[in-house]
Amino acid sequence: xxxxxxxxxxxxxxxxxxxxxxxxxxxxxxxxxxxxxxxxxxxxxxxxxxxxxxxxxxxxxxxxxxxxxxxxxxxxxxxxxxxxxxxx
Length: 88
Fold this sequence. Notes:
Layout: H1 6-13, H2 18-31, H3 37-47, H4 51-58, H5 67-83
Helix pairs in contact: 2-5, 3-5
C-alpha cells in the first residue's frame, strides 16, 4: 500500500476482532494524517501483521521483535490513551 492511499489503508484497518477495530480505527482516523512518512510506512507494515499478533501486541500480551513495529504499537497505545474513548 502507498502511504497516501487512505481508502485502502482505512479498509486494512478494519479487522476481524472488535478489540482491534476500537484500537486501530480511531488511531487511523485521528492520528494518521499527522504522522511522518516513515511512521506511515511503519503503520502500514503493522497492518500487514496477522490479527492474533496485533491483538497480543496492542493488548500488552507481548511485543513485536521488530523495533519499528514495537514503536508504532507504543505510539498507538499512547495516542489512544491520551485521546480517550471515541466511537468507531
